[in-house]
Amino acid sequence: xxxxxxxxxxxxxxxxxxxxxxxxxxxxxxxxxxxxxxxxxxxxxxxxxxxxxxxxxxxxxxxxxxxxxxxxxxxxxxxxxxxxxxxxxxxxxxxxxxxxxxxxxxxxxxxxxxxxxxxxxxxxxxxxxxxxxxxxxxxxxxxxxxxxxxxxxxxxxxxxxxxxxxxxxxxxxxxxxxxxxxxxxxxxxxxxxxxxxxxxxxxxxxxxxxxxxxxxxxxxxxxxxxxxxxxxxxxxxxxxxxxxxxxxxxxxxxxxxxxxxxxxxxxxxxxxxxxxxxxxxxxxxxxxxxxx
Length: 292
What we know:
- This is Porin family protein.
- It comes from Hymenobacter profundi.
- Keywords: Signal.
- Pfam families: DUF6089.
- This protein is α+β, with helices and mostly antiparallel strands and about 290 residues long.
- About 15% of the residues lie in helices and about 40% in strands.
- Strands 1-2-3-4-5-7-8-9 form an eight-stranded antiparallel barrel.
- The longest helix has 22 residues, at about 1-25.
- The protein is elongated, with a radius of gyration of 23 Å.
- The model has no long low-confidence stretch (mean pLDDT about 90).
């Protein structure tokens, strides 16, 4: 996955530079145009609370909705810039994702962690069309595949369901003794296709994956800490007592929650959206020449 990400981003940057240099002067301002749109997506994440610990494992039943709005401006025959605001939710549950009889997954099933996380994301991205349009928006191609990449900032707030089913904010509990930030950066990249309906509207299908720089979208990352270093109540429950071996007072997993024992895997979390876009083109004003 890391190699795919690196190669995709490098290819986008190279193609963008070449296309911009070759086409910028040939694409007059009269042919440039802007558009606004909405996206309706399915949202999921890759992290610690998934069926398998390797990318790109995810649980289909954990998919949650995501909605977005965006503004896009075309600068060149292949190049556009896009600013988007998205809101959505990711979730995970060891009791539903992990196989209790699997050689490795049974440890995660015993961990019994769950979470949901609402994410608000603001992104800026470059869009590279694989089919160019040297004309104005009225003569744009009917079908256009494209690649996209950029940078995003997002706010998240993981919560977990306690023994009563009530959701509790997890970041203030510092279940692993880490005071991580709820505002983070990500690198979104992906692609899609657009289809022209009429002169003003396009519909499309788009897949965007985000590489984040945090391993705490699910509040699970490192190792267990001493129980008595956690605040009584919710912190001790989510940091220690939630595990099945503790709740059921069994010896099936000896030393499971001792300080220093692994609670999560190495590597940062990712999240992704797959959905439909509806794009409305803002017809540019045509300036009539002045006669003297």
